[in-house]
Each structure stands twice: as C-alpha cells, then as structure tokens.
C-alpha cells in the first residue's frame, strides 16, 4: 500500500553501508520499517479514540453523578484538550532529552492510568482528573508518534509511513463511534472509556520491541548504536545518512534557540498549518455533527448513521492520501484538499440558506457538503500538517519545535470547540459554514505561497533549505 519513491539523498540505491555487516534484504527492511510505524501508530489510534468516544459517552454520562449540566459536560470534553496542550509541551523536551522510545513508553503508561481512572471514576471530579490525564497522553502521543516515525522511515516512504498516524487517528475516531453505537443499548459509558486500555497496553508492549530513533542516537554521539539500528531499517548507503545527520547537528550553532533567525520561517509554517487545521472547522464536524444533523430535523438514528458515514469517508480518504503523498507530493494534496474543504463548506452553507431545518433533498445536499469537506480534509490538511511538522525542523530542536506546533494545534482546537455552540447561536449554521469556507480560502492562499514541498528529500536536505531563509513554494 505504501508507495515508494526514489531520488532521496540518503537513499541512494546500490550502495551498501561500508561499515558493519551488509544491510538486510529489501523485504525484511520494509517489514522492520512498516512494523515500527504500525506499532507506534497505535498512539494515533488512542488519540482518535479518546477524542471521539466522548460524544457518545456523554449521552449516558449526563444522567450520572446526580446529573450533569451542559457546562459540566463541556468540561468533560474540553479538559482533554487542555491536558493535550500540556502533554505536547512536556513531550518535546522529554523526547529530545531522554529519547523518543522512552517518551512513548511513558506516554503509553499514562494512557493506561488515565483510561482506567475514567472507567472506574467514583466521582465527577475523578472523571475530570482522568480526562486531563488522558489528555496529557494524547498530546504527548500526537507529537512523539510522527516524530519517531519520521526519523525511522527512509525518505522515499516517509510520507506514507508518518501518515499511518493520521490513518490511525481517523480509525480511532470511527472505532469510537462504532463502539459508542454498539454499547448504546447497555448505556455502559465506563466500558466505552475503558476499552482504550487495550490499545494502550499494546502500544506499551509493542514499543518495548522497537529500537531508539537512529537520528536521536547520532545526536547523542551514540553512532555505533545508530548504525546498528539503521542497518535494520535501510537498504542503501547508511554512511551518507549518518554523515548527513552529523553535519546538520554540528553546523547549526544556536539552533537551541527556537526563535533563532534560521528557525523562525519553519516555526511559522508549522504553527500556521496547525492553526489553519483547526480554525477551518474539522472538529466542529467531528464532535458535533450528530447534534447538528439531529437539530436540523434528521432524527437521531439518521444523524448517527450520517456520522458513521462521515467517519468512514475520513478513513477512506486518508488511505488515498497515504497512497499519493510520496507520489504526487505534499503540496498538490494540501492545495487541492484545502480548496475542496472550501467547496464542501459552501455546499453545506447553501443547504442551510433556507433556515436551520433541512428537509428532503436539501438534507442530502447538506450531508453531501459535509462529506466533501471531511474527505478533502482527510486527503490534504489532515495528514499533511502532522507529516510536515515531522519534516521541516532541524534535528537539534525537532522535538521542541514540534511541541510548539502541536500546542498551537491543541490550543486552536480548544478555542474552536469551546466557542462553536456560541458561534452557531450568534451567526446561525449558514453563517458558521460560510466563515469556515472563507477561512479555508485564506489557508489556501497562505499554503500556496509559503508551504514547501518535502517529498522524497532527506530531513537533512529540508533542514538545509529551510534553515537559512524563508521557505519558498516549489
Ligand atoms: C486533527 C484532529 C482531528 C482529526 C480528524 C487530525 O489531523 O489534528 O484534530 O480530529 O484529524 O480526522
């Protein structure tokens, strides 16, 4: 399924690393790389599941603990996002300091603790604490997973492999909808939360079988270990990659400073991709589509069904993106996808022109608009944001810089999520959807001008280009 692409500097065909035993065969290399990415992507599954599960769980939770007000319900949803900001803040530093692998191990443990605390919460307050703890792990996973996969993957497969994370996120969201739906008859919200302990335990056990990121090892001066890892993960010349990583690590003096002149352009690209990913409205659809459609007169089961279809389109189009990212490149998908988001939002807004109620074919038009929007997000901005922030930062500050972009993403998510219902009241659905369409067009103009192409190039080459000057569209 993963498309390969040649021409990357560190992936020259033919050459075997001159140091140490020859590299393993192509098949086993591929198995190791894909295996590492798939295991790590369980962190993405947990991200998707834990953010998605609450929409269904709330239906039953609201009658618990003596009855929860709307505000108390909002807290259950949004405290996870606050926890995620804190988790992303801490994880970058920790990953740069103690390594990517131990950071993911700790993250998996925090997932287990948080999920079990939520499942067995004796009081409302315990549940809130559990949601913050889960959020810490979600935030940490959201940046350490693409970070680790990005460094383990050979450039020719990096787009597809890092985006396995986005596939896992969308798969986790869909799984949570299906489990919510399946358990609805039992009203067992504790089990809805608790089932996430299984992938969390699998992530912990899986990462135990994996090696540390070779790039991080080189940066620590542990070159022999890095070479041993690289020989498992590459078919070609590992000397070039080791030399490349050493060079960018050695020559970027002052790179510790995130605001250093050379770093700033890449920092802006990451932060603006993060903010645009959220302010164009994806999570208002992911978290609120059932309420929106039910409110438009669709009936609960039709609304839930439309939601499941939307979740499936999200997964399906992410698979399309994975197939294309290393073939067409990131920019064409990002630009086409963002344009498609604007179109989808305009269609949805037009459906709501006649008022907040949708009848007959207009209801289909509204749902079609949402599907176009979600599918376009899934093929572009969804995967491309997480992929690019794993690609555009210099190694010595990669963890911290990814933290900044990730915090911006969770912060923007929080602001949009917490204000959406107020926005709906203030400007009606059509106003909100036109606003998201407009913001998608603003995002499109920015991406066209500023976001570089990173397909098939080594992380070190990208670093050299972005390091000295503002990134240019290619
Ligand atoms: C975003 C999430 C969103 C998900 C939807 C991710 O890339 O960061 O906020 O819920 O995509 O598929």
Multimerization state: single chain
Percentage of residues assigned to helices: over 70%
Mean pLDDT: 87
Low-confidence stretches: 1-24, 468-474
Percent range for β-strand residues: under 5%
Return the CATH architecture: Up-down Bundle
Ligand types: beta-D-glucopyranose
What is the fold-level CATH name, i.e. the topology?
Growth Hormone, Chain: A
Give the CA-CA distance, first to last residue. Answer: 27 Å
CATH superfamily: MFS general substrate transporter like domains
Order of helices and strands: HHHHHHHHHHHHHHHHHHHH
CATH class term? Mainly Alpha
User: Number of helical runs?
Assistant: 20
Would you count the extended β strands for me?
A: 0
Largest β-sheet summary: none
Short description:
This protein is mostly helical and 474 residues long. Helix content is 76%, strand content 0%.
Topology:
Elements: H1 26-40, H2 42-61, H3 70-98, H4 100-119, H5 124-152, H6 158-162, H7 164-183, H8 189-194, H9 197-208, H10 214-219, H11 223-233, H12 238-251, H13 264-279, H14 282-295, H15 300-328, H16 330-351, H17 360-379, H18 381-389, H19 398-450, H20 459-468
Helix pairs in contact: 1-5, 2-3, 2-5, 2-7, 2-9, 3-4, 3-5, 3-19, 4-5, 4-9, 5-19, 7-15, 13-18, 13-19, 14-15, 15-16, 15-17, 16-17, 16-19, 17-18
Describe this structure in words.
The protein has helices at residues 26-40, 42-61, 70-98, 100-119, 124-152, 158-162, 164-183, 189-194, 197-208, 214-219, 223-233, 238-251, 264-279, 282-295, 300-328, 330-351, 360-379, 381-389, 398-450, 459-468. By secondary structure, the chain is mainly alpha-helical. It has a single domain (27-210, 251-466), classed as Growth Hormone, Chain: A (Up-down Bundle), CATH 1.20.1250.20. The longest helix is centred in the C-terminal third of the chain and has 53 residues, at 398-450. The radius of gyration is 22 Å and the shape is globular. It starts with 25 loop residues before the first helix and ends in a 6-residue tail after the last helix. It binds beta-D-glucopyranose. Residues 51, 166, 169-170, 173, 277, 282-283, 286, 314, 382, 386, 409, 413 line the site of beta-D-glucopyranose (BGC).
